[in-house]
Design a protein that fits this description.
The chain has 276 residues and is α/β, with parallel strands linked by helices. Helix content is 41%, strand content 17%.
Amino acid sequence: MRRLDTPAGPLCFDGGTKVMGVLNLSPESHNTQTVATTVPAALELAARYREWGAEIIDVGAQSSRYDVPTLDVDEEIRRLVPAVEALSAEGHLVSVDTWKPEVARAGVAAGAAIVNDTGGLGDPEMRRVVAESGAAAIVVYVEGANPHAVDEIDVRPDKAAVTARWLAERVTALEADGIDRVIVDPGIAINYPGDYAGYTRMQLDVIRRLDVIRTVGPPILVPIPRKQEDHRVMAYITLAVEHGADIIRVHDVAEACDLVRLLTDVSGGAGRLRTS
């Protein structure tokens, strides 16, 4: 059994898939079922996530869509901190979704145990925040400095291998900075302009090739992309579980938890694709 220690306790990976539920404090988010604009609403939503089976709450106050305005740091912190304090007090394992070091610092001070850096932990100041706080960190593959600074996605057939090399280099650099409690995310839920159909096919291909990402070493988080068609979202969840994601980050928490239970039972407890 692999174990990842966090300030809020360990995450143990025993071959199954853990569910991370998205909780948006950003009213600009298009995913209205995950939006909570008050602390009581955030606590209520997180309680439902826990009841359904989610083990991690990923809290974000800034929409990562490239076509949404970028908040200033003070506003993002104002939205974030009260909810993180309340969720942590209720015993939730909280990750903070941000690419801004000042926001991450405020989040971990409020009780967050994980920094989910959609900027890929490329910012030296963000690395200092993580190293000094002792928080675990999620390294997200992103083609740009952050999700609001992206251009068209580079759609290519060997994307899993390209992503794995990038992640491996970043993990090695983080270890040199004293950061070794990490989770890797292939970044397939980042929104990019460009070839939507091509990106969709590539997202699926990366999930099917998680064995390539697994060579990097740390646990793998697969962020489930949002699609207009619910059945496509369920297909992504199923593929991610069957191909061995350690964590899936989802907006459809009840459905994801149910699918994880179903697929784990069907596969005999491991939740992994069986190949001959």
